[in-house]
Amino acid sequence: MIDLERQDDVFILRMNDGENRFNPKSIAAWNAALDEVENAPGPRALITTGTGKFYSNGLDLDWLMGDGQSEAPEFIATVQALLARMLCFPAITVAAINGHAFAGGGMLALAHDYRVMREDRGYFCLPEIDLGMPLTEGMTALIKSKLPTATHHEAIVTGRRYGGADAVTERIVHRATPESEILPTALEIVRPLSQKDPATLRVLKQGLYPQTLEKLTSGPFIPGR
In terms of CB atoms within 10 Å, which end of the chain has fewer, N or C? Predict the structure, then answer.
């Protein structure tokens, strides 16, 4: 479901479960991997990526609308806790977006410090408008904290799909590259930054996003309830 490898001072977290959707098992795997990175000795930075066509397609809606329906509020709380954890993670982070980053997958990418996207295939998209699924206050706060006003407005109310070049233009991602250069570019970004002090990084990031973190870690987690 998740592989974690280390290349010198850089950890690479790779999601390898098809569409890489979020459910209780995948959230637990994410947190276990992040625990390992946080507890590792020495300098560290973190790159996250997917496999094949997908970075992440967000929530596992089949599970959430089926067996997980009764667990929805608690589950959404764990998703938001993961977004909050990434937002103030005590290492420099890069989302190497190898394919589609939809809904919660797009929000996860936004919670990183940097984003590199494949230029020729794959989209960044917040499709909740077309799914009839309102965002929580925490999710909206995260999107607004990371994207320019015009961009977050368009992304949320239209569900537009942004390819790599458009995502750079709209300042959703920092770079767009050929598929073969996604990981090398991410490594180029984080390697010079792996020496940053983890404790100081966490505090500084918390200071950058206090209101967003508060909304991500407090309820209600289901809009309208």
Answer: C
- What's the domain count of the chain? 1
H helices of 127-181, where?
A: 128-131, 137-146, 149-158, 164-169
Whether 223 is covered by a domain: the verdict is no
Q: Edge-to-edge strand order for the sheet containing 54-56?
A: 54-56, 100-102, 124-125, 161-162
224 occurs within a structural domain? no
The CATH number for 23's domain is 3.90.226.10
Written as six digits, the tokens of 58 are 């967000």
Q: Which two tokens stand for residue 124?
A: 């960044």
Element holding 14 (H helix, E strand): strand 10-15
Confirm whether 51 is domain-assigned: yes
Q: Which structural domain range is residue 57 located in? A: 2-216
How far is 168 from 162, CA to CA, in rounded Å?
A: 9
Report which of 120, 109, 88 is spatially closest to residue 155, judged by C-alpha positions: 109
For residue 178, cis peptide bond before it (omega within 30 degrees of 0): no
Per-residue confidence of the chain (225 residues) as pLDDT tens digits? 899 999 999 999 999 999 999 999 999 999 999 999 999 999 999 999 999 999 999 999 988 888 888 888 899 999 999 999 999 999 999 999 999 999 999 999 999 999 999 999 999 999 999 999 999 999 999 999 999 999 999 999 999 999 999 999 999 999 999 999 999 999 999 999 999 999 999 999 999 999 999 999 986 555 543
How far apart (Å, rounded) are the C-alpha atoms in residues 191 and 113?
Answer: 14
Does a structural domain hold residue 83?
A: yes
